[in-house]
């Protein structure tokens, strides 16, 4: 504000000097000396104005320049009868605006002393005063002096009032901002207090022990869970160290753990056994960590202790149960191995002991037909044919049973297997064995899985063989092998346009010796049971859909890896 006012005063002083005071003095026929002094003053005011544009404000220089001008032209300009006393009022108003503290009183005293001295000199030496030529000149000079003084005082007063108003508005805005800050601070303090109360409620409400210590190991916080576990009251602990909480040997161990946390500046997890006040033992899982201030310095530590007595007891019981389970598994494994050895012995017996009588029955039946066939009546020959057929069927059943039992015992050798190539090879074999049949094989290329090649080939032989067998009633049969999505998983299928089956009996389809068709189709009822066993050994599933006289589709899944 002062800088802006100083610029206005310099501009006003220069303008008034050159365009008001000098022309008026010339008209009043005042001595040329007066106009020279006023012109010098106006020029210096312009120089001060130019300096102000460079952020240089010579306020004291302007004051003394003005005072010197008044003293120089006091007597040549009519002394106290002219307008000069009015300009002293400008000086007195200038001082409190641009001077502060003690620097204000000395120029004020100097101004008063100067004015009194001029008046005294005028009284003592009246001949020094140059009078006006006429009363009209004196009145005109006073009017000009009053106008210039009024203009300067108005400029200063207006600037002061505007500055006061601006400062008042600034103070009002600051006050409003301060009030908002107070309201916001009050709200923040309320929220902090609420959060502190919530935090204290959570800390005291948890069943875990929570505590905080300062750098010297004295407790600053000790929640209800910690009081319960240690059997101490809060007033017995706060401000005290571990010797007030634990027995001496336990206190030393706890303080040693605190030193490790503080020196290492990192959290540690440990287990500690604690005796409660009633003598019961607790196993605590304790987490300790350092506390830091805003500068990152360690100022204390926190700790959280959880009662894991029950979980440790359960873990021990679980360990004992696992040991008992392992022992039982070993026993059952031994029994299972013994049973498997018995099964292998039984399979060997079936394979060798039963095959001998069957071969004898079949051989002697063939001998009877060859040597005594012409002498036998047709009915007897029919009986012999039935004996041979049944013995052959029984041999096939024994072979299938042995194959089914070996599937469950054999070890899987997983490799990449191309199901498309296997299906194509099986179809070629079937077509070569019966070239008279017209069968269209629709095999999707590039179907690959990971599994046991021998078992998967056996599975496809049964599936493709069933499709070949049950589609033999068609003049032009169709057998398809492909892949589609089923419930988001990849499923393979074997499809034919044969006799199909009734879905009401689908549960029996994959059971051993369960046949849904009569003797018009050869077979032992073991094929689909073998398929099911192979698929399940690979971790997959198998199912079938069919419509009587419209064909059937068998689906199976084989997980990857």
TrEMBL record:
Coiled-coil intervals: 308-342
Organism: Geomonas diazotrophica
A UniProt-annotated Pfam family: PAS_4
PANTHER family: BACTERIOPHYTOCHROME, TWO-COMPONENT HISTIDINE KINASE
TM annotation in the entry: 32-50, 57-76, 82-99, 106-124, 144-161
Record's protein name: histidine kinase
Entry keyword set: Coiled coil, Kinase, Membrane, Transferase, Transmembrane, Transmembrane helix
Keyword check for Nucleotide-binding: no
Keyword presence, Transmembrane helix: yes
């Amino acid at each position: 504000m002062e800088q802006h006012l100083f610029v206005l005063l310099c501009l006003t002083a220069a303008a008034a000097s050159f365009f008001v005071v000098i022309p008026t003095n010339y008209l009043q026929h005042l001595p040329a000396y007066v106009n020279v002094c006023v012109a010098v003053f106006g020029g210096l005011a312009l120089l001060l104005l130019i300096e102000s544009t460079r952020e240089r404000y010579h306020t004291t220089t302007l004051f003394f320049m003005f005072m010197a001008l008044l003293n120089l032209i006091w007597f040549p300009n009519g002394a106290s009868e002219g307008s000069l006393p009015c300009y002293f009022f400008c000086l007195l108003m200038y001082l409190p605006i641009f001077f502060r503290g003690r620097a204000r009183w000395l120029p004020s005293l100097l101004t008063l002393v100067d004015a009194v001295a001029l008046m005294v000199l005028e009284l003592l030496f009246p001949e020094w005063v140059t009078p006006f030529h006429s009363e009209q000149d004196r009145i005109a000079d006073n009017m000009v002096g009053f106008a210039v003084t009024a203009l300067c005082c108005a400029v200063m007063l207006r600037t002061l009032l505007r500055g006061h108003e601006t400062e008042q508005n600034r103070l009002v805005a600051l006050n409003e901002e301060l009030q908002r800050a107070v309201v916001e601070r009050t709200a923040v303090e309320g929220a902090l207090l609420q959060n502190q109360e919530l935090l204290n409620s959570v800390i005291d409400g948890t069943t875990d022990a929570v505590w905080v210590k300062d750098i010297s190991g004295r407790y600053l916080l000790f929640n209800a869970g910690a009081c319960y576990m240690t059997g101490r009251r809060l007033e017995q602990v706060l401000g005290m160290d571990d010797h007030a909480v634990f027995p001496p040997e336990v206190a030393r161990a706890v303080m040693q753990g605190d030193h490790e946390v503080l020196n290492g500046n990192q959290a540690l997890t440990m287990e500690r056994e604690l005796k409660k006040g009633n003598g019961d033992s607790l196993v605590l899982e304790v987490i300790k960590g350092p506390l830091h201030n805003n500068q990152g310095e360690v100022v204390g530590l926190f700790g959280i202790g959880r009662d894991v007595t029950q979980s440790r007891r359960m873990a021990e019981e679980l360990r004992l149960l696992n040991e008992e389970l392992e022992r039982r598994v070993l026993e059952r494994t031994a029994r299972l191995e013994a049973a498997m050895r018995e099964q292998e012995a039984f399979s060997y017996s079936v394979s060798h002991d039963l095959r001998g009588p069957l071969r004898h029955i079949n051989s002697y039946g063939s001998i009877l037909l060859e040597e005594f066939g012409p002498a036998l009546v047709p009915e007897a020959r029919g009986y012999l044919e039935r004996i041979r057929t049944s013995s052959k069927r029984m041999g096939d059943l024994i072979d299938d049973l042995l194959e089914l039992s070996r599937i469950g015992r054999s070890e899987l050798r997983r490799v990449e297997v191309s199901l498309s190539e296997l299906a194509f090879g099986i179809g070629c074999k079937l077509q070569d064995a019966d070239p008279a049949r017209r069968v269209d094989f629709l095999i999707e290329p590039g179907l690959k899985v990971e599994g046991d090649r021998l078992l998967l080939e056996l599975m496809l032989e049964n599936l493709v063989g069933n499709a070949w067998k049950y589609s033999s009633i068609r003049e032009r049969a169709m057998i398809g092998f492909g892949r589609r999505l089923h419930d988001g998983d990849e499923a393979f299928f074997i499809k034919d346009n044969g006799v199909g089956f009734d879905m009401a009996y689908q549960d029996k389809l994959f059971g051993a010796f369960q046949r849904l068709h009569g003797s018009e189709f050869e077979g032992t009822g073991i094929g689909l049971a073998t398929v099911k066993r192979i698929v399940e050994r690979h971790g997959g599933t198998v199912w079938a859909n069919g419509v009587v006289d419209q064909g059937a589709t068998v689906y199976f899944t084989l997980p990857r890896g």
